[in-house]
Specification:
Low-confidence stretches: none
Mean pLDDT: 94
Distance between the termini: 11 Å
Bound molecules: 6-O-phosphono-alpha-D-glucopyranose
Helix content: 25-40%
Oligomer: single chain
């Protein structure tokens, strides 16, 4: 969602800011803008549309050698996407410029209060109110930071924000509450961003602000404090991300690159965590000793979108390997149903970005009620990782494409290790444990084999790309895979896809089967093979085309198309079965000419409700 970039140093700020915005494009946005300060004048350029439109607009005006500035990509919440509503926003005199992520919940009251004071608001946004409020506080404040602090006292809601003051030529003030903000420490220059992706080209030394924290930033450094004006001390940490993690590196798009990276991403997630001697897994970040692991009587996975489906795969793994009840629930629902929080349940909050507001709110609700919650998060230092305090990092590397592929795979791989660990402190035998360890270790190679079948999947995709609807069907292990497959197709191709438990088909949806309704059926070679073959026969008898995704030998001519995956340990089948569905969605979207990495209406990390 919205992206923030700030710069103060000796370089020309505009190109640094615009390049930073480019790197945040993947998050999803609908307008963009930049404000730079030179000789006491704030120059603002903004536009509805893409960062390249902003770049074009900037090219129309004379170059501005300013060395300090702020920039933003906006995802509309208050008011339509338009030039007027795009950030940065200014106060009436054009002294203060603000960029802001998050949602000010009492924006209506704040705006009304300003209007009553005679302030003329020029946009429909919540952010503009902040600019006027900060400007009003300046008279009584000792510093810009104090003015920002004073203004924020009236604010309810979430924010990551950066403020520029016309009278302070090289200073930025930054604040965070619920929306990530990170400082990048350079040599005689400082960067600010909502996501390290915008910084790693310049510096890998970063400072993550906490909620309720502010920072004043100038080319020589930074100082941090709380909303209550208490000084905090923050040392920079080094992020292990290389700039080229965010480059296409010869791939046509990020989804393709990230699918291809899955074997190495899985190998990274497994590294140092598998134990042959005791046939178990080591997940040091969980912070749970064997006694605590034994005390877990139930596991609940919480996540949104693909993370939720990965959680469902995790729940199946935990039930199979550890024989304790487990389920998954959309994190977006959790806090609203006044959940019964059980002290014997281990809650697992799943998130690639670690920023998804619904998932963060579920974690906060759990913690408030004394629940034990761990994170399964990809982005180190992210809000959910920090709120949980313990958990398992996914080590998938940066994921840029909106559609999650390698992160999702690493979620499921991590849950297989968690299930193995929970199983081995209970009744899972060493032999069974070793079978899972061996299966996990073989995964990178097996995923490689699935990816090598790309051309075959492309042919199938071409044949079905113009279907208007598709079913995805699976039983037990195959059911969350079917849901994830349908989600991928919807997200990036805009083809209507619905997932059903295969056995539910005959209870209603079978009425929809005809020659124009293809079904993708997940057929792992497990105890339910005969049942799944029966499902395919039911569909074929009604003239429905079938694409079977399988590691079993199916009767010749049963399905119209067969996408094969290698045989592995049956509990791990969902991991392998997911991969051809990524490829299928990818090739259908490509055939339909979709913008694969940036599907319409979607954002990579959803930091608003
Ligand atoms: C958005 C994305 C989904 C993603 C979900 C959860 O809705 O479009 O692809 O699965 O967020 O994201 P997270 O970062 O929490 O895993």
């Amino acid at each position: 969602m919205c992206g923030i970039v700030g710069y103060t140093g000796t370089r020309e700020a505009t190109p640094v800011l615009v390049e930073g915005l480019h790197r945040l494009e993947y998050r999803g946005y609908d307008s963009a803008g930049v404000a730079v300060l030179r000789r006491g004048k704030v120059g603002v350029t903004k536009t509805a549309g893409r960062v390249r439109d902003l770049r074009d607009r900037l090219a129309e005006s004379p170059p501005n050698p300013a060395t300090v500035g702020i920039a933003h990509t906006r995802w509309a919440t208050h008011g339509e996407p338009s030039d007027r509503n795009a950030h940065p926003h200014l106060d009436t005199e054009g002294r203060i410029a603000v960029v802001h992520n998050g949602i000010i919940e009492n924006a209506e009251q704040l705006r009304a209060r300003l209007t009553a004071r005679g302030v003329e608001l020029v946009s429909e946004t919540d952010t503009e109110a902040l600019a006027h409020m900060i400007a009003a506080e300046l008279a009584a404040a000792d510093s810009l930071e104090d003015a920002v602090r004073a203004a924020l006292r009236h604010v309810e809601g979430t924010y990551g924000l950066v403020v520029l003051d016309r009278t302070r030529p090289d200073e930025l003030v930054v604040a965070r509450n619920g929306s990530p903000i990170v400082l990048g420490v350079g040599d005689g220059e400082m960067f600010v961003a909502s996501d390290v992706a915008a910084l790693v080209h310049h510096t890998q030394r970063v400072v993550f602000l906490d909620d309720g924290e502010l920072a004043t930033v100038h080319p020589g450094g930074y100082r941090t404090s709380t909303l209550e004006a208490r000084r905090t001390s923050k040392e920079p940490t080094t992020v292990e991300l290389a700039a080229d993690d965010y480059e296409l590196g010869g791939h046509s798009d990020f989804m393709r690159k990230e699918m291809a990276e899955q074997p190495e991403a899985v190998a990274r997630a497994l590294r140092g965590r598998l134990d042959d001697r005791f046939a178990t897994a080591h997940l040091g970040g969980l912070g749970l000793d064997p006694m605590a692991l034994r005390a877990v009587r139930r596991v609940k996975f919480l996540g949104c979108g693909s993370a939720y489906y990965a959680g469902q795969m995790g729940a199946t793994l935990v039930e199979e390997l550890a024989r304790i009840p487990a389920d998954a629930e959309p994190a977006s629902e959790f806090r609203y149903r006044d959940p019964v929080v059980d002290p014997d349940t281990l809650y697992v909050a799943i998130s690639q970005s670690g920023e998804t507001l619904d998932t963060l709110a579920a974690v906060q609700e759990l913690r408030r009620k004394g629940g034990r919650v761990i994170g399964a998060v990809n982005v180190v230092g992210s809000a959910i990782a920090r709120e949980c305090g313990s958990g398992v990092f996914l080590h998938a590397g940066p994921e840029v494409s909106v559609a999650s592929t390698k992160a999702l795979t690493n979620m499921t791989v991590s849950f297989a290790m968690l299930a193995l660990l929970l199983g081995r402190v209970r009744d899972l035998s060493a032999a069974a444990g070793l079978r899972v360890v061996t299966g996990l270790r073989a995964l990178p190679e097996r995923i490689e084999e699935v990816l090598a079948d790309d051309e075959r999947v492309r042919e199938v995709a071409k044949r079905y790309a113009h279907a208007r609807h598709m079913f995805f069907l699976g039983r037990v292990r195959g059911w969350p895979v079917a849901r994830e497959g349908a989600q991928k197709l919807k997200e990036i191709s805009y083809v209507h896809a619905e997932a059903y438990q295969a056995a539910e088909l005959k209870h209603g949806p079978l009425a929809l089967i005809d020659a124009d309704m293809p079904s993708v059926v997940l057929v792992p070679d497990d105890d339910l093979l005969a049942k799944n073959i029966g499902t395919i026969e039911q569909i074929k008898a009604r003239g429905g085309p079938v694409i079977a995704v399988t590691n079993a030998e199916l009767p010749a001519g049963l399905a119209d198309e067969v996408l094969r995956v290698p045989r592995g340990e049956p509990e791990l089948d969902p991991i392998l079965l997911t991969v051809p569905l990524q490829l299928l969605a990818y090739h259908i979207a490509a055939e339909l000419g979709r913008d694969i990495d940036k599907p319409r209406n979607l954002a990579k990390s959803v930091t608003v409700e």
